[in-house]
Amino acid sequence: VTPHKNLKNLYTLLKEALEDPTSGVVAYKDETITGELINPTTWDEIRTQIINVQQIQRTDEYGNIIEIQNVESEMNSAEVQRCQIKEEWYFDKHRSEMLVRIIAICPIRVVEKDGELVPQRLFWVPYDETLRKILINAPFFNRSNSAARLSYDDVFMKRIFDSYIIKEENVFDRSINEYAKDVDALRESERIKQSIIDFEQNLWEY
Hints:
By secondary structure, the protein is an alpha+beta fold. It contains 5 helices and 10 strands.
């Protein structure tokens, strides 16, 4: 949560890259309908989504309210607790194996609404060479082995993270939670993952 020396969390890295006009990193609005990266956005526009407004009351000596002030503060990076990744799985005929290409990443803010924790997608950033240059130079703390140095690019390219599938490309452009709920949604996610594994295995004969 708090940057220490050259260690920063992913959201802070993305924020600093978007604030720096020379970085070349471009963010896109979350297109919930098309899911495509078509509308670029600026950090000033993003900032309007993550501003927390708190009302502070000033009272007189008798306890009467004499003034109400709105104090704005930017969202704490601790509220970004997960990430959504859009990727493409494909079969490489030259290597004869299934490979994956990360297309874009989206930090997810978890906010409390009506007593429930609700995920909120903030923005999408293409996982291109421009972003990779920043992530390659950003160290990631390896809890398993401090001697093995990792970067944030290593985390994504080597897939050192836990995840589950929430959507597969389909003709109706539906997410899993639109046609399956609770345990059924988890089973559907596992079914899609298993179909990728089976596709590669079925290419070989023993």
